[in-house]
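Weekly puzzle thread! Below is a chain. First person to post its structure in token form gets bragging rights.
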Amino acid sequence: MAASKRAVGVGLIGFGTIGSGVVRVLRDNAAEIEEKLGVPLVLAKIADLDLHSDRGVKVRKKLLTRDARELIADPAVDIVVELIGGLQPAKDFHLQALRAGKAVVSANKALLSEHGVELAHAAERASLSYGFEASVGGGIPIVRTLKEATAGDRNLEVYGIVNGTANYILSEMAAGAGKFSEVLARAQAMGLAEADPSYDIDGFDSQHKLVILVALAFGKRIKAKAVHVEGIREISGIDMAYAREFGYTIKLLAAARDTGDGVEARVHPAMVPNAHLLAQVSGPFNAVCVQGRALGPSVYYGQGAGSMPTATAVVADLMEAARALLGGTGPQLPPYGRKVSLLQRERVIAMAETSHEHYIRFLVVDEPGVLAMISTILAGEGISIATVSQHEKPLRGAVPVVIRTHKAKEAALKRALAKIARRKQCRALPVVIRVEESLGES
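Winning reply:
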């Protein structure tokens, strides 16, 4: 594109919550955007299957179409923004746009976790920008930070809270505002959780984001299905109370560590020490921590979801793409901060090979010898008990018993818990929450 172009045209595929936010940001901040770019960033076309619902923002009818391919082919569109989510037809739209010489911006973490490397390679071959700042952390500029601000360092760990829905639920439960089902229903009524919330509360959204963070932070390619995932459905008020007693806060943690012999990557509930900054992140907010060899620890905090925070990240990518188009030299940086050919395929260390301290809640019959049975089985697998707690009164002959272990191998713990669960004294599957005392100590 010639530097003399009078405007940069944006084509928006997906006019939902984030898409309508992008329209608002482009409209409300038009003067600031033009001042920084030197030309206007204008909305040239919008594609969506639903052209009639009220999004709370007005656009001219002539900009609307149900055909995304028509949008991609429109010569007035210089940059294509994909906000429909999912793998297909989103992937095809990305490739069609790049083949048509259009830069691409997306917030689609599911697509990026599965096909991001392939799509980034296509963008590299075409010398076009491929932006996905909004795919992780909403309005937190963590993608740009890892690509640019910490580019001269070697990152050892990246971890944090990357799902606002789960964090809101856990924060409300920790505050005593209801049990899991009640808080989830409230989050759905507020629009913080989907009608089917499984993607968020079962950890898969965080899993996809962690795959992207690993590529950016470590330069390593890992498969999403190799990342260990647990959700928050089994967390109860009892667990919250014990966490407070022990000096912890329960969070859905996404964590990755570059060991030099593989990547440890996992998503699960964790007891985070109250002294750690992550313990203070409440509501729908996100925070990502990066441990660099030279920089040490750094924390990036902000709104991790919602129309306007996410739209802000989308528009930042639009402006970066527009600068590259106006300059006529292509993007300054590859999508992952290094060429795709330099991203190393890496194995993910199996969860069974890792070691952690554990909080375990058993529901057992209230009779002599039960604790001895549990202790014997744990000891047989080489698992040492740090503390035992039992505050609640028996209910229908069963009582919760909480044990905290010293650091133990996951494989050994799994074997021990399977043996305990088979005993007639055990009335429910044990609930396990890992205790994170060594975050950021690589």
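Puzzle host: Confirmed. Bonus trivia for everyone else. The longest helix spans residues 307-327.
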